[in-house]
Sequence to fold (184 residues):
Amino acid sequence: MPGKVFVITGPSGVGKGTLIRTLLERMPDLELAVSATTRSPRPGEEPGVHYHFLDDVEFDRRVVEGDFVEHAEYSGRRYGTLRSELEKRVAADHSVVLEIEVQGARQIAQTLPDAVRIFIAPPNEETLRLRLVGRGTDAKDEIERRLAVAKAELEAQHEFAHVVENDRLDDAVSALERIVRGVA
Fold:
């Protein structure tokens, strides 16, 4: 059976990374596509493992060369999914999970219409704010920028066939796993 592409999106701080890590533990046959970004690595992030860290010039070159299946700007940084990240896995009949921003998920709907798109939503905006502050990785002005973007992104939930509310981690991962197993 050919591999499937699962696009998991939602606002910054909603817990996409934690949900995906737990999903991958439960479903070890799934593979995570490593995104490219122009932002600097956070403490503990390794190039090629957490992201492909590119400078603006390299990112631009790769956009022009058509190396991305999607790319977007988010909160002053650029992110994208390299075509090679998907092609090598899907060609080997592996299902792939993409953790991307809403802009990129919209592009994937056009470029890969068979991709399964899943939106992760917070129980409310205050919970989202507390999560962003609690992770301690962003300055106050960056948190405010991310929250402003998040408000617009939350309005996009209706564009997705699947919405998972991340209130309690175990419940959210179980819901995500049901979607993936039901489609895969």
The mean pLDDT is 90. Residues 56 and 102 are 21 Å apart (CA to CA).
